[in-house]
Amino acid sequence: MPIDIRALRYFVETARLKSFTQAASSLFVTQSTISKMVKQLEDEVGQPLLIREGKTVRLTDVGKVVYDRGQEALGVVHRLTLEVADLSSLGRGQLTVGVPPMVNLFFSPAVSAFRRRYPNLQLNLSEHGGQIVEQQVAHGELEVGATVLPGDSGLNLETRQFAKYPIWAVGPHRAAWASGRTVTLTALRDEPLVMLTDEFSLTRMLRQAFADARFEPHVVAQSGHWDFLASMAAAGLGTTFLPEPLLSRLESRDKLAVARLTEPTVDWALAHIWSPGRYLSHAARAWLEVCEEVMG
């Protein structure tokens, strides 16, 4: 059964993001192109792969198999391309680094230093939540990336921490906890919460903290954009959680109360990730070296 690699790539991205629209934006093509290529793949396989539900999609049983094996296949193709290209030098080529949206602000100095040192190398930053970046690195779709620790231990990724900050509760001044400089997790038991979507490692970490505290959080809204979460908190919708470096970037700071999260203390630890034992191109190794020099 011949399968078009481009159709497979479009299908995997659609399944990962659960949206034709988001996949089109991620791949810089039209939504109609995504739909056409997914339909082509379904014709090649001979069975439906996605169930359309309004603006979202979910995998059929056959789709789950094609998605899992498709990630592996795309990883093999990516590594083949890298190893062939890497027979040359760092004088040309490209490198894509997976970076969660909330983490990208830390990489400006490293990107600048890398560009100065290797001006002919094209550096691309692929922005997805930490959990997606981890999966992409584990499956070989990306060589290197960044995530929030602890990562998914089942993916067996190598990590190198480069920053660590406390998490703060951010919400309206009328919130029950707003008068203190610190707030315990259990004090937020009955508070409405606005959180990052579940693809973000910070959300995974917080949900585990809630589970350890033995209560279900009252989540009223989720978004993939931290500044929108802050806006919702300022509008009185609920309390959100942000790492300390983002507090200074809040545009509506005067409308918000902040308190450091304690008992338990939840830290936002950032790390570079790569797959141990897998081939790393010269460009990927150079990126990690520059990051260590610039970011520590």
What does this structure look like?
This protein has 296 residues and is an alpha/beta fold. It has 3 domains: 5-83, Winged helix-like DNA-binding domain superfamily/Winged helix DNA-binding domain (Arc Repressor Mutant, subunit A, Orthogonal Bundle), CATH 1.10.10.10; 89-147 and 275-295, D-Maltodextrin-Binding Protein, domain 2; 163-269, 3-Layer(aba) Sandwich (D-Maltodextrin-Binding Protein, domain 2), CATH 3.40.190.290. Helices cover 40% and strands 25% of the residues. The protein is built from 10 helices and 12 strands. It has helices at residues 5-17, 20-27, 31-45, 61-85, 108-117, 130-138, 201-212, 226-234, 244-247, 282-295, and strands at residues 50-53, 56-59, 94-99, 122-127, 144-149, 158-172, 182-184, 192-196, 218-223, 240-243, 256-262, 267-274. Strands 3, 4, 5, 6, 7, 10, 11 and 12 form an 8-stranded mixed beta sheet that branches. Helix 7 (201-212) links the parallel strand 8 (192-196) and strand 9 (218-223). The radius of gyration is 21 Å and the shape is globular. The protein starts with a helix and ends with a helix. The mean pLDDT is 89.
